[in-house]
Amino acid sequence: MTTGRRAAVTTTGLTTTGLTTTAVTASAARPDRHVVAVAVTDNAPTFELAVPCEVFGLDRSDISDPWYDLRLCAAEPGVLRTAAGLTLHTSYGLDDLVAADTVVVAAVERRVQTDPPEPLLDALRTAHARGRRIVSLCSGAYVLAAAGLLTGRRATTHWMSAADFAHRFPDVTYEPAVLYVQDGGVFTSAGTGAVIDLCLHLVRHDRGSAVANEVARRMVVPPHREGGQSQYASPLAGAPRARRDTGLAPVLDWARERLHEPLTVAALARRAHLGERTFARRFREALGTTPLQWILQERVRLAQELLETTDDPVESVARRAGFGTAANLRHHFARLTTVSPQSYRQVFRGGAAGRSSLT
Fold first, then answer.
1. What is the model's pTM?
2. What pairing do the DSSP bridges indicate for beta strands 35-40 and 69-74?
3. Tens digits of residue pLDDT in 25-51
4. How far apart are CA 145 and CA 171, in angstroms?
5. Is the four-CA dihedral 22, 23, 24, 27 of positive or negative sign?
6. Closest CA to 67 of 49, 55, 75, 81
7. CA distances (Å), 23 to each of 4, 53, 56, 197, 355, in order?
């Protein structure tokens, strides 16, 4: 599984004993492409490596042109194989990793978690010093932490590694419940399925919600999952947790259809046939946040889509998203996205114009 040549055609070769699969995609090298380089170590988990290939490696210029330029970079010498036995052939190495716009460390086996290759650590430090966006997938967070890139930052990894990661890296603020974390220009994800969540988040960050939603639709996955990884953690991983099957999905769907209306905890609790305190407790247990904070996040997400896919003035977007006034929208939008609604529209409206049918 690799981008095998530095030519106008990207060749991906997957090899197992007695089976070779080659997929060729027309992805001509263009200087305006955002280069995503994935550091690959030997015996890497296959799924976590395949996800960035699916999200960034397929030619999706029909929905956003130019699309990304994916490069799999060997982070160790010799023949590299995935945990499933697939052989990886690539002409890209650590020099290519440092030169990329986004640097991704794929999931790694335990050997690399406890003793990452020093050349890879040096390359990551150099890339970070040059202002590259740094991303880890699942257990790749161990490598970022060993390189010192997570010191003083919030980060996450697979819930099964929570105690070990926190013990090894006490200078990192470990977030046990989230699917992914963004702290400045450094991104980390929880395990397996959360790798999809983070990769789609990066597309949303770069190209807007309309494009990310279409990629998710083509992958037949949700564009955004509610809650965090704590809802998937085994009770044996730590202290007993409340059940996550709280039956809140119908209430969430009901609320999403009424974001333009006044929504209160009392109204949601009545819809769930629960008392307010019981509802608020179960909500936090299931989603890791309060009902009012969840409503705010959903309204900002709706405002993002309206800014991308309509020509409505900010005042109209504010009303349709449930903020009431433009001033209220601007305050909460900037707090959650770090940019103003106008700036967000300027960045993403061009890429989303003419694609409203995708959402």
1. 0.64
2. parallel
3. 334 456 689 999 999 999 999 999 999
4. 9
5. negative
6. 55
7. 11, 12, 15, 25, 28
